[in-house]
Fold this protein.
Amino acid sequence: MLNRTVLFISDGTGITAGALGKLLEHFPSTHFTQVRLPFTDTLDKIKLAQEAILHATELDGGRPVVIMSLGNIELRNALKQSNAYFIDLFNTFIDPLGLELDQKPLTGAGIAHSVMGSSYHERMEAINFTLGHDDGMTNFGLEEAEVILIGVSRCGKTPTSIYLAMQFGIKAANYPLIPEDFERGVLPAVLHKHLDKIFGLTIKAERLHSVRSERRPDSFYASLENCRKEIATAEGLMRDAGITWADSTSRSIEELSAIILQKIRKPVN
């Protein structure tokens, strides 16, 4: 396993530069030590960043990777005096796009927030909604939900709901299927009028057994037999109601969210 330091250097929060860090997933044979340097917006802070680059070089015995998002050309050029492999958001993507559009791109910290202000507020509203409708906490306001995730306890409903809210501004509620539902043999009555919004999650019994055992070891709730029974019954309820579902066992939250967005036909802004 190779060791390499990657520095995310930005004049703002670093969220955009951090997103480019997904590129690193294509190189599983390298262990990346991540260093984040947000709000690098003065020459003095650039000098601190250069010191961090030098330290990483000495530590790894090779030059680090720098993923940078600096709108100020002077700061960009100053940082590039260091010995590193640079992935420059502006030089690689934004400046060429400006040439194609024959427009001068906006630069500076907070541009994404200022340009997409309405989207930001939508996401905040979605997050508040999702947190308030986690795990069947309340049935009030479910008509506002854009998607309602259902499934057995600990199958990934909460993290997927929160990701949908944070990344895409989706008002996502989630509702657990519990033993009382299994005994009745039908979905909870509160869900009947929202069937067009419901998306199911399922999971392999062995994985669910492992997850539940971390929370309640040696319990009936976590037993493999109970996990198998709950999953089979939940899938039967969803099948009878005509609900689409996805298996969360080996899928990331990002993959699950993409499947859900496609199902509810929600365009990503």
